Amino acid sequence: MSGTLHLAQALSNRGRRGRKRDFRDAERLLKRLVSQELTLSFVPDGEQRLWRTVTRTKHQLRRNKVRLHNQLEALLEEAHLKLSSLVSDLLGASARRMLQALAEGETDPAALAALADQRLRATSAQLRDALGACTELSPVYRRLVKMALEELQLIEQQIAQLDQEIASLLRQHQDAVQRLAEVPGLGGGFGATDHCRGGGQGGDLRFSQESFLLGGGCQLIWMILNKGVRYEERGPAVSENSRRARTSRMIRTLRKLGYRVEPLRDPA
Question: What is the pLDDT of residues 122-140, one digit of tens each?
Answer without folding.
Answer: 899 999 999 999 999 999 9
